[in-house]
Amino acid sequence: MPSAPSAHRLGDIAAHVRGELLGDPGLLVHGLNGLEEAASGDVSFYGNPRYRKQFEATRASAVLVGMDTQARDGVALVRVHNPHLAYAKLLALFHPATRPEAGIHPSAHVHPSAVIHPEATVRAGAVVEKGAHVGARSVLHPGAYVGEDARVGDDCVLYPHATVRERCVVGSRVILHASSVVGADGFGFAFNAEGEDGPEHFKIPQVGIVRIEDDVEVGACTCIDRATVGETVVGRGTKLDNLVQIAHNVRVGPLSLICAQAGVSGSAEVGTGVVLAGQVGVVGHIRVGDLAKVGAQSGVAHDVADGQIVSGSPAIPHRDWLRASAASGQMADLLKEVRALRRRVETLEKEKGG
Amino acid sequence: MPSAPSAHRLGDIAAHVRGELLGDPGLLVHGLNGLEEAASGDVSFYGNPRYRKQFEATRASAVLVGMDTQARDGVALVRVHNPHLAYAKLLALFHPATRPEAGIHPSAHVHPSAVIHPEATVRAGAVVEKGAHVGARSVLHPGAYVGEDARVGDDCVLYPHATVRERCVVGSRVILHASSVVGADGFGFAFNAEGEDGPEHFKIPQVGIVRIEDDVEVGACTCIDRATVGETVVGRGTKLDNLVQIAHNVRVGPLSLICAQAGVSGSAEVGTGVVLAGQVGVVGHIRVGDLAKVGAQSGVAHDVADGQIVSGSPAIPHRDWLRASAASGQMADLLKEVRALRRRVETLEKEKGG
Amino acid sequence: MPSAPSAHRLGDIAAHVRGELLGDPGLLVHGLNGLEEAASGDVSFYGNPRYRKQFEATRASAVLVGMDTQARDGVALVRVHNPHLAYAKLLALFHPATRPEAGIHPSAHVHPSAVIHPEATVRAGAVVEKGAHVGARSVLHPGAYVGEDARVGDDCVLYPHATVRERCVVGSRVILHASSVVGADGFGFAFNAEGEDGPEHFKIPQVGIVRIEDDVEVGACTCIDRATVGETVVGRGTKLDNLVQIAHNVRVGPLSLICAQAGVSGSAEVGTGVVLAGQVGVVGHIRVGDLAKVGAQSGVAHDVADGQIVSGSPAIPHRDWLRASAASGQMADLLKEVRALRRRVETLEKEKGG
User: Fold this and answer.
1) Fewer CB within 10 A of the end CB, N or C, for chain C?
2) Which residues constitute the catalytic centre (chains A, B, C) (predicted)?
3) What pLDDT does residue A327 have?
C-alpha cells in the first residue's frame, strides 16, 4: 500500500534516477503528476513527442525527459534514458510502500498445521488452511484465503477476498488483487448420454494445480483455473489485468502483459513478452509466440508466430486487418460500383452483338 | 433489500403515480408483473407498441399505459406520462426497502479510529480500517471491506465481499454489489530492460484514488481501478452493470449507463448520459461524447462526438455499420460477380483485338 | 475437493469403466495424464484421431481407447465406448472427493432461525442469514454467504466468497465457485427526466429471485442476476464457466454449456443443450434454440433456431460466416480488381466510341 507523499530536493531526485540535472539541485519538490495536471512544486515526465504541446505548456517545476531534449526556460529538466521508468521510480520514492505489522490477527483462522513465517501478516478474518505455507513479509488482507497445502512465497500481497485454492503454488513478490481466484476448477466435462438420471455433463475432476511464478500481478476478479492434471502456469514477471480468464492447463510465459477482460482457453500457450490487449480471446490448444502482440477484442484462432502482430476476429496479421477494416467501410460503395460495371459491360456486349 | 409484497387499492396506486384511473378505485391489487406473466390481481405496464398483442391478451387486473391509450373492457387502466417509470415506482411501493438494524456486529472488525455513524450498520465479518468513515444509514453487509482513510457516504449499501480500497471516496446513496472492487491498482508498468534480475515490468505505484459520486450503482464483480496519480471518477447517477472494467484515471460523467462486461481503458473519458452496451471496449486516452451510444461488442478506437451512435469493431457510425454488416453477407457473392465480370471483359477485349 | 491419487490394478480399472482389457490385469497403475505428459505407470486416453501421433509416441502404461482401436505392442489398451468419459470416471476413482467434517464452525455466523442440516458443513466466517436453509452434506467454505430466506439444497459446494442473495433457490449437487454472485440486482432503471434533484435513472426494484436447478456448476466471478419480478432460471445440469454474466429474467435450459466471459442479456432464453463459446454476447428478449451452438466472440442479435450453428458479430449461420471471413481477407484485393476492371471497361467504351 503506497503511503502519502513526502518531499525531496531536485538534486536527490536526479541522483535517484541517475539522471542529468539541468536546474537548481536545491529546489524542493512535493509531488508528481502528468504534464497537464502538474502544478508548481511537481515533477512530471515527457517521453513521447505526441505530448510536445502538453510539455511546452506544463506548470511542473521539473520534468523528466529523454537524453536529447533541449533545456527550456522556467522548468528544470532531468535527462534520463527512460523517462517513463524514471517517473515510476520517483513515484515509488515519493510514496514508499508501507506494510502492516507482522503477526496473526486473533480473528484470522489459521490451521495449527499451517506454517506462517513470523514476519508475515495475517489480518482479520483471513483464512489459512491445513498444511499451507505463507512466506516472509507476505500480507494476507481481511478475507484472503489460502487453501489446504497451498504455498504463498515471500513478500506477497493478497488483497481482500483473494482466493488461492488447495495445493496451488504462488511464488514471491506476487500481488493478488481483491476477489481474484487462483485454482478454481477448470471447465471440463465429458458428455454422458447414459447417466443414471438421463443425459449429463459428467464433471471431469480437476486434480491439477496453478503455479504462479515470482513477480506476477493478478488483477481484481481475475480467474486462473487449476489444471485437469498437471499445472496451469503463469510465468515470472507476467502481469494480468482485471477480469482476465486463464483456463485450465494454459501456460503463460514470463514477462507477458494480459489486459483487462482478455481470456485464454484451455491448454493454450502464451509465450514470453507477449501482449494481449483488452477483451482478446485465445482459443484452446494453440500457441501465441514470444513477443507477439494481439490487438484489442481480437479472436485468436490459430498459432501466432514469434514477434507477429495480429488483430481482428478471427485474428489476421495486423497490416492485413488494417487494410480489411479500411476496405470494409467501402463495401457498400463497392457493391454499387460492381453493379454499375455490370451494366456497362452488358451495354458493351449488346452493342457488339447488335 | 426489497421486502415481500403488500396489497394496495387501485385508487391509491393511481394517486401514487399521479395517473388517471379508468376503472374501480376500490379494486385490491396484490402484485406486479409483466404483461404475459401477470395474473388476476396484478398490475402490469404497457409502454411500447411492440407489445400490443401481449397487452391485448394480458390477464392483469390493471395496466399502466400511456396518456393516449383507449379504455378496454375487462381491465382497468392507469394513464401516466411514463408507464415504465410508474411501474418502477409501484414496485418500490409494493416492496418497500428494508434495512437491517443500525449498529456494529461484535464480529465486525472496526478500527478504533474509524468513524461509523451511529445510524450505520456494520454486519458480521465486515471490516472498516483505520481512519475510514461510514455515513448515516449505510449498510456494510458481511465481508464488506472499507480500507484505510476511505470514505463511504450516507445511505449506501455494500453487499457481501464488496471492497473499497484505501483513501477511495464513495458518495451517498451508492450501491456496491457483491464482490465489486473499488480502488485496485491500475494496470501500469514501465518496461525496464536492465532490472537487477534481468528485464522486468517495473510496477508504477498507483497512488491516486477512485471517487464515486452520489447515486451511483456498481455491479457485481465490477472493477474500478484507482488512478496512477489523481482520481478515477464515476459521475453522479451513473450505473455500472456487472463485470465492468473501469481502468485507472478514467472519468465517467454523470447519468451514464455501462452495461455488463464493457471495459473502459486508462485515461479515457466517457461523457454525460452515455450508453455503452454490453461487452463494449473503449481504448485509452479518447473521449466518448455526451449522450453518445455505443452498440454491443463495439470497439471504440477514436473519439466519439456528442450524441453520436456508433457500432462495430473498430466502431464506425451506426448507419455505416448497418450497411457494412448487410454488405459483408454479400461478400462471397460479390467475389463471384467480379470474377464473372472479368471474364466478360476479357472476352470483349479479345474480340475487339481479333 | 479431490484428494491425492491412489493406485489401482489395471483389471479393476477396466472393470470400473466397463471396458475390454488388452493387457495384464495385474499391472499396477499410479496416475492419469494426457498422452504427451503420461509416464510409465500412468493411464491416458485416446479418443480423437487428431492425436494419433501422440498416441503412438506415448509412454503411458495403458490407454483408454475406442472400441475399434487395434492392439499395440508395449502398451495395454482398455477399449470403451467413450474414452473421454471413461478417463473422467478414472480421475474420480483415483482422486475420490473428500469433504470437511460436518458441523458449524464457531466463527461462522448462522442466524438462529436458519436451518442447517446436521450433515452440512459451515466453515469459518461463512454466513447464513435469517430463515435460510442449507441441505445435507452441503459445504459452505470460509466467507460463503447465504442470504435471508435463501435455500441451498443437498450436496452443494459454495467456495470461498460465493454469494447467494436473499430468497434465491439453489438445487442439489450445485457447485458455486469462489466469488460467484447469485442474485445481485438486475440492471434495470427507468429514466426520469423530472427527478426531485434533476434527471435520474430511477432504480427499478429487483424483487424477483434466481432459481438454480440441480447439478449446475457456476464458475468463479460469474454473476447471475435476480429477476425484476419472477425468476431468473438456470436449468438442470447446465454448466457456467468463469466470469459469465446472466442478466435478470434470463432462462437457461438444462444441459447447456456457457463458456468464460459470455453474457446473456435480460429476458433472453437459452434452450436445452446449447453451447455458447467464450466471450459470446446474446442480446435481450431473444431465444437461442435447443442444441444451438454459438461460436466464440459472436454477438447474437436475433433468435437462433433449434440446432443452428452461428458465428460472427452480428451472428449469422456458421457456414456463411466462414465464407464471409475468408472473403474479408480478400477485400483489399477485390477493391484493386474492381478498379482495374473499371479502367478496362472505360478503355473498351472509348475505343467503341472512337
Assistant:
1) C
2) 248 (proton acceptor)
3) 75
Name the residue ranges covered by the structural domains of chain C: 8-94, 103-310, 317-353
Which of B141, B279, B311, B339 to mutate to test binding with chain C, by most C CBs within 10 Å of its CB? B279
Q: Is C202 on the interface with B (CB under 8 A)?
A: yes
Contact A294, A276 (CB under 8 A): yes
Give the Cβ contact number of residue A166 at 10 Å. Answer: 20
Yes or no, beta carbons of A320 and C329 under 8 Å apart? yes
List the subunits that have 3+ CB pairs under 8 angstroms with C. Answer: A, B
Chain mean position to CA A124:
28
Is the model's pLDDT at B353 over the cut of 90? no
Euclidean distance between CA atoms C165 and C173, whole angstroms? 18
DSSP A66: -
pLDDT tens digits, B294-337: 999 999 999 999 999 999 999 999 998 888 887 776 777 788 88
Long-range contacts of B23-29 (CB under 8 A, 24+ apart): B23/B62, B23/B75, B23/B76, B23/B77, B23/B78, B24/B76, B27/B61, B27/B62, B27/B76, B29/B61, B29/B62
What is the nearest CA distance from A312 to chain B, expressed in angstroms?
Answer: 8
ipTM: 0.94
Question: CA-nearest residue of chain C to B256?
Answer: C201
Q: State the Cα–Cα distance between residues A343 and A322, nearest whole angstrom.
A: 32
Chosen for mutation from B130, B181, B344 (greatest number of chain A CBs closer than 10 Å) is B181
Q: Do C261 and A247 touch (CB under 8 A)?
A: no
Residues 49-68 of B with CB under 8 A from C: none
CATH T-level fold of A8-94? 3.40.1390
Model confidence band, residue B345 (pLDDT cutoffs 50, 70, 90) = confident
Give B52: exposed, middle or buried? Use CB within 10 Å, 0-12, 13-18, 19+: exposed
Q: Which three cell numbers stand for residue A9?
A: 530536493
**DSSP for A128-193, written as a single string:** E-TT-EE-TT-EE-TT-EE-TT-EE-TT-EE-TT-EE-TT-EE-SS-EE-TT-EEEEPP--EEEET
Do C103-310 and C8-94 have the same topology in CATH?
no
Read off the C-alpha cell for A328. 470494409
User: CB–CB of B138/B156 below 8 Å?
Assistant: yes
pLDDT, tens digit (0-9, with 9 covering 90-100), for A27-63: 999 999 989 999 999 999 998 888 999 999 999 999 9
Any chain C CB within 8 A of the CB of A160? no
Rounded to the nearest angstrom, the minimum Cα separation between C237 and chain A is 6
Closest-CA distance, B18 to chain C, in angstroms, reads: 13
Instruction: Name the DSSP class of A23.
Output: S
Interface contact A89, partner C, CB < 8 A:
no
CATH of domain A103-310: 2.160.10.10
Chains touching chain A, criterion 3+ CB pairs below 8 Å: B, C
How close does chain C come to A141, measured CA to CA in Å?
13
C209 compared with C2, residue with greater pLDDT: C209
- Distance CA(A159)–CA(A180), nearest Å, equals 9
- Cβ-Cβ contacts under 8 Å between A and B: the total is 192
* pTM score: 0.95
> Is the Cβ pair A1, B348 closer than 8 Å?
no
Q: What is the mean pLDDT of residues A294-323?
A: 95
Residue A328: pLDDT over 80: no
Chain C residues close to B235, C-beta within 8 Å: none
Record the cell numbers describing residue B231, joined without a space. Answer: 482520481
* Residue B141 C-alpha from the chain's centroid: 21
Residue C339, classed as helix, strand or coil, is helix
Judge: C239–A189 Cβ closer than 8 Å, yes or no: yes
Minimum CA–CA partner of C161 in chain A? A161
